[in-house]
């Protein structure tokens, strides 16, 4: 017989039929090595004509694989897991059989496509793997987990020495699909716990084995223990040989963990060398761009994204994220150009993406953001988005999402109302509920938004700790308080549990009572913000109130504590209320004679954006040397602002004198001095020192901030 299919299974009734269905038309023999199923796995296997081979489970996958090989009666073996299946099975199977009849190779590689999520672009991992091999060459598997196909060295398997698969290995041109890496599957089947048990035992015997350490790190990621994964990956990288086949993947996964832990500088330093070493690995170029962008190196990030695009989508032997050389770096590059103000370049990329992937909302939202920054009206933006590819089936919903993201609440709200029944249905997306509420709040419908959000909290009880549910709880409470309404005790419990699961609702009731008490002031001897956690939550409530435009409520909260009052001024500016923020910061300077670095930086940036560079320079210099701000990084940003303002002053001087270039210059610059200065200023801006405003914040900064008028005139007598 020509070809047999070998499958390991244990309680795989939910997926085994799909696997066997994909091979039954061309397999001469199917062997299912069952390690103790208690569901319908064995019955399903027998229905497909498989020989079921009972094998005692010893926490060792290679033992099971090798037992199946001992029972093989075919010349070739195709190895699958139960949660894998052959793509385009009938055509692929016939093609495979023809290839096996004429090939001189001892083994064939397949393209592996691992589905990581059912939604989104690039939610798939791809690699090449040997899955078909001759059964008469003495090949066997080694390794308790993530087993590897090898050939025993001279002396047979008893010698303990193994070699890689010998002879040429051909590409089959076929694809095996796999969905067992989905987080929901890993959790439901407790795969990570099983793997951890096996790998931990391996590490007791071989504590410095880089492959075991790498697998341990992967398992830590699956269990959500990211810091433990970082330690394991670092140890593995210290121990691994330079030519180890899994080293590129180790570097990739280590970089992902570093970025997840906000160690962007460390990731960038590592990837600078590794992206050059593995120049054909698009994933590393993409991650290098992400790391550089996180450290404010925007131009360098753009170059890394362009390198990923140049590599393209080819796997080239690497374990790779689908689209790491295609859509993902192109989207990231478009976003960087947008951040740098290169609107034409950004618009071109975003428009290409929405044309190629008609239903990919991030690209639509990016295009909407570009158009908003270019000054198009909300109606014109809506019409342009529809014109690009036409209205998709879920058009009103995705259009509402995109318009809400850029703060076009007035034009988005009618769209939300037309899809309201779907959004608020039991199967509705929490993200869409949040977006619908944002449009209501943005148009002043606080009571309706509050009621909607509270119903969602009640319906989703038990979801404490979920980030978006936490945001909804905060917004619901703020909507009630903004309308001077109190929450019922049960509603306080829902909200408190979502916001601060470790505490009861008492702290939230204190805030509610305090906000309703007009006589409460920051002059009280004992502040209610006694604990660090309470202050952090108070700041979060304050920031959210300002972001939602509830400025009177935010001001009442700020007045309850001196530290919150200072923070309020920073948040006003950061949320786009720059004129009101400047008014209050200058008032503070008049009263106290000094400001902290966060104040000085924001005043300096305000003046810089008005081209008042000399005045801005003075503010930035004070910000670089001042302390007292809990607003991290403003001293460093002030230093960069000082440099930018100084260069702008030199540029102004050159323009006044009419100088095109310096007479004494040695000729190393082909451009004029002014052009060179503009390039340096551009590079400074690309370091990310300026405040980044989203669509709603830009609207406020550009004058759409009537709700802040009372702050401009509310001067104490």
What report would you give on this structure?
By secondary structure, the protein is of the alpha/beta class. Helices cover 57% and strands 9% of the residues. Among the domains are: 3-179, Spore Coat Polysaccharide Biosynthesis Protein SpsA, Chain A (Alpha-Beta Complex), CATH 3.90.550.10; 194-240, no CATH class; 580-661 and 670-713, no CATH class. The chain has 34 helices and 12 strands.
Element layout with pairings:
Elements: E1 3-9, H1 16-21, E2 29-34, H2 41-47, E3 51-54, H3 61-70, E4 76-81, E5 84-86, H4 89-102, E6 107-115, E7 124-134, E8 140-142, E9 148-152, E10 162-163, E11 169-178, H5 183-188, H6 191-205, H7 210-222, H8 226-239, H9 247-260, H10 264-277, H11 282-294, H12 298-311, E12 320-321, H13 327-339, H14 343-356, H15 361-373, H16 378-389, H17 395-405, H18 409-418, H19 420-423, H20 430-442, H21 446-459, H22 467-482, H23 489-499, H24 506-516, H25 532-547, H26 551-558, H27 562-574, H28 578-592, H29 597-609, H30 613-625, H31 634-657, H32 673-685, H33 695-701, H34 709-713
Parallel strand pairs: 1-2, 1-4, 2-3, 6-11
Antiparallel strand pairs: 4-7, 5-11, 6-7, 7-12, 8-9, 9-10
Helix pairs in contact: 6-7, 7-8, 8-9, 9-10, 9-11, 10-11, 11-12, 11-13, 12-13, 13-14, 13-15, 14-15, 15-16, 15-17, 17-18, 17-20, 18-20, 20-21, 20-22, 21-22, 22-23, 25-26, 25-27, 26-27, 27-28, 29-30, 29-31, 30-31, 31-32
